[in-house]
Amino acid sequence: MKNRSLVSISDFSKEEYLRILELAQHFERSPIQKILEGYVVATLFFEPSTRTRLSFESAVNRLGGKVIGFSDASVSSTSKGESLADTIRTVSNYSDLIVMRHPIEGSARWASEVATVPIINAGDGANQHPTQCLLDLYTILQTQGTLDNLNVAFVGDLKYGRTVHSNVIALTHFNTTFHLVSPEELKLPSAVKMHIKEKNLQYYQYTDINEVIQNADILYMTRIQRERFSDPMEYERVKNSYILNNPMLAGAKDNLRVLHPLPRVNEINTDVDDNPKAYYFQQALNGVYVRQALIASILGLV
Ligand code: CP
């Protein structure tokens, strides 16, 4: 993985995912290791973020490296009309690795083609969020003891939810059965379903969340992505499609865990937070260990 960019989850093989997860376990046991002294990581966030940016920055700090960057593109020279390519070429001169989030699909691939240092895609529009995917795989392994042969239900905005796209593609390596719950307007795109079909795996589509809870091992809730809708009325129609609450989990399997990439709006009632099946805040914590593992691997330090 040394010096490679991570733009799409398809850029890494199953063996490479497993290597990252193994390393992440090592960082979970021992998160403070000064292997990044003298290194600079740039975090360029052209879109809002709490978890992704701060967990990357926490990961770098815990490894003894330094962070430069911005969390608001309006304070960068983008606001004066500078192109993404020029920004990336410039920041390549100041850093050893660039973590970038951008609202345009394909922007991370474009950045990786002009950068002279590796690029990690921290989310490009509705396309992909590969590092969230890796931390989700880590969390699934941590809660289920395996990644193989699971029933995984994805619920909510499967059209615009980039974490779902990356997760579905990655999970096709693990003989997953997919349960896809969404409003009609927000179904998983055909291009992502193709990955399931190519592996001859099963997927089932639903509009009612109650149909999937009893058989699921993982219930992966997602936010309806308001910022991706061109028609605000369409968002209003679907925004409250799924609201998970404690009584709905009553018949679930013991091993079921509720995940969510967060932020949540109202799709998981706060009464679920104290349910032992709720695992989304631990999931967010895992982002630090997985990102430590990824940075160390890409910089060739492990
Ligand atoms: N999961 C995730 O990407 O969260 P943020 O938008 O807060 O980074």
Quick structural overview:
By secondary structure, this protein is an alpha/beta fold.
Structure notes:
- It is globular and about 55 Å long.
- The protein contains nine helices and nine strands.
- The protein folds into two domains: 132 residues, 3-Layer(aba) Sandwich (Rossmann fold), CATH 3.40.50; 155 residues, Rossmann fold, CATH 3.40.50.
- Helix 1 packs across helix 9 and helix 2 crosses helix 9.
- A five-stranded parallel beta sheet has the order 7-6-5-8-9, covered by helices on one side.
- The termini are close together.
- It is an alpha/beta fold.
- The model has no long low-confidence stretch (mean pLDDT 97).
- The structure holds phosphoric acid mono(formamide)ester.
- Phosphoric acid mono(formamide)ester binds next to helix 2.
Q: How is the largest sheet built, in terms of strand order?
A: 7-6-5-8-9
CATH topology (level 3) name of the largest domain: Rossmann fold
| CATH superfamily descriptor of the largest domain | Aspartate/ornithine carbamoyltransferase
Radius of gyration: 19 Å
Named once each, the bound ligands are: phosphoric acid mono(formamide)ester
* Domains (count): 2
Structural class computed from helices and strand pairing: alpha/beta
CATH architecture of the largest domain, by name, is 3-Layer(aba) Sandwich
Oligomer state of the chains in this structure: single chain
Q: Determine the fraction of residues in helical runs and give it as a percent range.
A: 25-40%
Poorly predicted sequence stretches spanning 5 or more consecutive residues: none
What's the total count of β strands?
9
Proportion in β-strands: 5-15%
Mean pLDDT: 97
